[in-house]
């Protein structure tokens, strides 16, 4: 079973979120304190600027942390949750956690953008596009390669199973053909034997007919002699 890095990333994200909440609360309190004073002292203004910078840096760190968590969820989903021992319900909870964290980060970003310190514009680094983490990209590419290799192995296994099945079927067909050939040979032998017996029977029948014809011819001669004798006798008597 592959190692699931989600819990490490999620733990770091939760810790960073907790720190960012505290920084956001401190920053808002400093803003309220400085705005309630008619003339904010330079030290108070410095504290506000420092709190603003710390909160901005924390938000940037949160964006990277939530991206790591999102990447880990994406890898688990693409590779197959069962490979990491993750149930579909757990995967759904992880996606919801990522969405909640992104919403909270957006809320913290609005605090920074809408309430910059006096005399300063909203930090430009909040609006800069995030740079891709090379390590995360390389890990994702390796994971994709492993997925492709796993799919190729699965496909090759299926092809091997199919070939074995075809080979077994071909062997069975060859055996059946051999059995049919043996049956046909036996049938031919029986036909030849039957033809021999039939020829012998026909010869016997011809002999019987010939003998019968000869005997019938002899009886006909004797009958004719008797008839002729009777005719002669009748003539003499008349």
Question: What does this protein structure show overall?
Answer:
Among the domains are: 116 residues, Methane Monooxygenase Hydroxylase, Chain G, domain 1, CATH 1.20.58.90; 30 residues. The protein has 5 helices and no strands. About 5% of the residues have low confidence. It is a single-pass type IV membrane protein. It is found in: Golgi apparatus membrane. Keywords: Coiled coil, Golgi apparatus, Membrane, Protein transport, Transmembrane, Transmembrane helix, Transport.
The Rg value, from CA coordinates, equals 54 Å
Which structural category fits the helices and strands? mainly alpha
Please report which band the strand proportion falls in: under 5%, 5-15%, 15-25%, 25-35%, 35-45% or over 45%. under 5%
Please write the CATH class name of the domain at 1-116. Mainly Alpha
N-to-C span: 136 Å
In percent, how helical is the residue content?
over 70%
Main sheet: strands, sense, barrel: none
Indicate the CATH architecture of the domain at 1-116: Up-down Bundle
Order of helices and strands: HHHHH
Number of helices: 5
Overall geometry comes to rod-shaped
Total strands: the figure is 0
Biased composition (Low complexity): 29-44
Subcellular location: Golgi apparatus membrane
Transmembrane segments: 216-237
Membrane topology: Single-pass type IV membrane protein
């Amino acid at each position: 079973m592959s190692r699931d890095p989600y819990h490490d990333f999620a733990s770091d994200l939760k810790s960073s979120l907790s720190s960012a909440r505290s920084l956001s609360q401190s920053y808002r309190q400093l803003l309220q304190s400085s705005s309630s004073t008619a003339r904010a002292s330079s030290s108070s203004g410095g504290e506000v600027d420092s709190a603003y910078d710390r909160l901005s840096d924390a938000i940037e760190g949160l964006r990277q942390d939530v991206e790591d968590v999102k990447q880990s969820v994406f890898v688990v989903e693409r590779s197959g949750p069962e490979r990491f021992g993750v149930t579909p319900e757990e995967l759904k909870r992880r996606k919801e956690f990522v969405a909640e964290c992104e919403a909270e980060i957006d809320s913290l970003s609005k605090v920074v953008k809408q309430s910059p310190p006096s005399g300063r514009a909203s930090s430009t680094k909040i609006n800069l596009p995030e740079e891709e983490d090379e390590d995360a990209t390389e890990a994702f590419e390796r994971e994709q390669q492993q997925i492709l290799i796993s799919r190729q192995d699965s496909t090759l296994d299926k092809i091997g199973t199919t070939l074995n099945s075809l080979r077994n079927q071909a062997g069975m067909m060859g055996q059946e053909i051999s059995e049919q050939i043996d049956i046909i040979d036996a049938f031919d032998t029986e036909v030849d034997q039957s033809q021999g017996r039939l020829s012998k029977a026909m010869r016997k029948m011809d002999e019987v007919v010939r003998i019968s014809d000869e005997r019938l011819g002899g009886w006909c001669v004797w009958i004719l002699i008797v008839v002729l004798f009777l005719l002669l006798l009748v003539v003499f008597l008349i």
